[in-house]
Amino acid sequence: MSSAENKRIALFPGTFDPFTIGHQSLVARGLSLVDEIIISVGINDKKLTYFSLEKRLEAIRNLYKNESRVTVMSYNSLTVDFASEVGAQFILRGIRTVNDFEYEKTIADVNRKLTGIETFILFTEPEHTHISSSIVRELLRYGKDISQFVPKETELY
After folding, report:
1. Are 54 and 74 in contact, with CB atoms under 8 Å apart?
2. Residues catalogued as catalytic
3. Which of 23, 31, 142, 147 is 20 to 30 A from 87 via CA?
4. pLDDT tens digits, residue range 87-98?
């Protein structure tokens, strides 16, 4: 087996509307556990997004333009199917609350049953537990400054 075949690849799926400092922290911490992370921006027609798919992809790609171990892609399928398609052995998820845990555990169990792909969960760092994309979107709608909640390098607006 070549070293490329032994690469540990994790898929980090989400809508990332927008990508927050909490997401950035999870990617940084995840890179200590795997060789590569594919940040996968899900396309969900049922979800009303604040930023276009193109804008979200561009912002995240710009953020990681100098990190060769991070790839940014979009997908429009079941997350676990996309993980299989791109050769990811793991799905990376973050949780902030007990409610997040219950939801993520159920999905992880189904994904493992369907494909054998393992999910690993990182707890959000305490200083980021109050940050969610939905709260950041709400702040934006009311004209508030969101710079403390998104990576400094992010150019969204």
Report:
1. no
2. 23, 47, 96, 133
3. 23
4. 999 999 999 988
